[in-house]
């Protein structure tokens, strides 16, 4: 009896994203078959049983299929916006100067604390829809704009709710160690006590976080304070990730590697020792060209060092109101190619396979392999390089999430 599938996509060109770093796993005459939301077959059309049956067959007319895109670093849920600070930066103020004057993250905290969960969801939906509209099927969302237990949990609950409002997989990260709230009166150690002893246990008990993040920087928290947060996360069984080496080299990449972090993100100032440590730990380097561009950074992340030492590289939008109001993974890829000199293959695997690896979900998504979720992006393009080459153009033909 012929095997029966829910859907078969045929007459397609397929980029499976399997293989080594330089290989997109391209198949010219490809076919994908799915059942119960998962891929059963992804390979050449000639190797697929000719008598296979399906509820629905989709002729892709030679279009390209890639895995659904993965945005592995966003701050999608927040209140208000920071357009005024953008104007100040255009007049010469630096990101650090704005932050030290009470702007920056703390200004978004004030707006986020005032917002209800419903308001946070309503504000985030257009941003999420923009990502979905370009083929995203998995999106990470951080807290970090509450800086107290109540608002941090409300942010994370809003993020979880987004995953019920839209057909997309949402991964959440608790970022209580993002900045110092005004009521802390400058006492970072006391605030970290609060994060470790009250906020993090409450978040974990409620099941609101898939990972724990931190911001290790001169304007944020030290290596010792970050390590305390990571130790508390480890005690609760939660993986960690880190905003590291963005504005200076405080050894963030090496600290992330010490705790076997899923990823270290930004990394403009990471040195060779940090890159070596990340490779040994399997920590993914997440590059965020939107922030580099928006705050007019000049120090580029050490892509050559990451290549030399075999560090996996992912890309993400870093969508946030202050330093990267970006909701386009397609533009993030173009920025990474033009600003960081990443290759087409590095960009495309960076928003699929490596983005999934950075979230710890590579076993479920990120490549087109039997057993993984059937998350697909079908593109009106002649070659994969078009997805990186074009600016302000969306060639998405169809998006498939969990086989639908």
TrEMBL record:
Main location: cytoplasm
Top EC category: hydrolase
GO molecular function: imidazolonepropionase activity; iron ion binding; zinc ion binding
EC number: 3.5.2.7
Co-factor binding comment: Binds 1 zinc or iron ion per subunit.
Keywords, ordered alphabetically: Cytoplasm, Histidine metabolism, Hydrolase, Iron, Metal-binding, Zinc
InterPro entries hit by this protein: Amidohydro-rel, HutI, Metal-dep_hydrolase_composite, Metal_Hydrolase
Residue ranges of domain Amidohydrolase-related in the record: 64-381
Keyword Isomerase belongs to the record: no
Pathway note: Amino-acid degradation; L-histidine degradation into L-glutamate; N-formimidoyl-L-glutamate from L-histidine: step 3/3
Keyword match Ribonucleoprotein: no
GO BP: L-histidine catabolic process to glutamate and formamide; L-histidine catabolic process to glutamate and formate
Binding site for N-formimidoyl-L-glutamate: 145, 320, 322
Reactions catalysed according to its record: 4-imidazolone-5-propanoate + H2O = N-formimidoyl-L-glutamate
Superkingdom of this protein's organism: Bacteria
Signal peptide: none
CDD domains: Imidazolone-5PH
Residues reported in the UniProt entry to bind Zn(2+): 73, 75, 243, 318
Localization in the cell: Cytoplasm
Database matches in NCBIfam families: hutI
Protein task: Catalyzes the hydrolytic cleavage of the carbon-nitrogen bond in imidazolone-5-propanoate to yield N-formimidoyl-L-glutamate. It is the third step in the universal histidine degradation pathway.
Family recorded in the similarity comment: Belongs to the metallo-dependent hydrolases superfamily. HutI family.
Designated name of the protein: Imidazolonepropionase
Organism, scientific name: Bradyrhizobium uaiense
């Amino acid at each position: 009896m012929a095997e029966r599938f829910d859907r078969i996509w045929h007459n397609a060109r397929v980029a499976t994203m399997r293989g080594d770093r330089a290989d997109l796993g391209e198949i010219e005459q490809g076919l994908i078959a799915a059942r119960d939301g998962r891929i059963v077959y992804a390979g050449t059309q000639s190797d697929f049983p000719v008598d296979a049956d399906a509820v629905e067959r989709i002729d892709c007319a030679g279009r390209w299929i890639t895995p659904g895109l993965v945005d592995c670093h966003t701050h999608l849920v927040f209140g208000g916006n920071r357009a005024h600070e953008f104007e100040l930066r255009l007049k010469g103020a630096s990101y650090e100067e704005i932050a030290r004057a009470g702007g920056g993250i703390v200004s978004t905290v004030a707006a986020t604390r005032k917002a209800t969960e419903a308001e946070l969801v309503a504000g985030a939906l257009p941003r999420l829809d923009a990502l979905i509209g370009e083929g995203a099927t998995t999106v990470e969302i951080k807290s970090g704009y509450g800086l107290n237990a109540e608002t941090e949990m409300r942010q994370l609950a809003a993020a979880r709710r987004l995953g019920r409002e839209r057909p997309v997989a949402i991964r959440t990260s608790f970022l209580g160690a993002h900045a110092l709230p005004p009521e802390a009166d400058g006492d970072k150690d006391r605030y970290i006590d609060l994060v470790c002893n009250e906020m993090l246990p409450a978040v974990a008990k409620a099941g609101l976080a898939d990972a724990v993040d931190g911001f290790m920087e001169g304007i944020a928290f030290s290596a010792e304070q970050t390590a305390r947060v990571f130790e508390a996360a480890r005690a609760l069984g939660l993986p960690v990730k880190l905003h590291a080496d963005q504005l200076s080299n405080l050894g963030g990449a090496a600290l992330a590697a010490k705790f076997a972090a899923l990823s270290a993100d930004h990394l403009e100032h990471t040195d060779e020792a940090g890159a070596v440590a990340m490779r040994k730990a399997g920590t993914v380097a997440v590059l965020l060209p939107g922030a580099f561009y928006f705050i007019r950074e000049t120090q580029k992340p050490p892509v050559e060092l990451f290549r030399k030492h075999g560090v996996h590289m992912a890309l993400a939008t870093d969508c946030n109101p202050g330093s990267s109001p970006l909701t386009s993974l397609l533009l993030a890829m173009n920025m990474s190619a033009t600003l960081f000199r990443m290759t087409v293959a590095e960009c495309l695997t960076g928003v699929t396979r490596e983005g999934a690896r950075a979230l710890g979900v590579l076993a479920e998504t990120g490549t087109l392999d039997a057993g993984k979720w059937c998350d697909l992006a079908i593109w009106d393009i002649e070659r994969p390089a078009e997805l990186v080459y074009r600016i302000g153009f969306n060639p998405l033909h169809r998006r498939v999430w969990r086989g639908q």
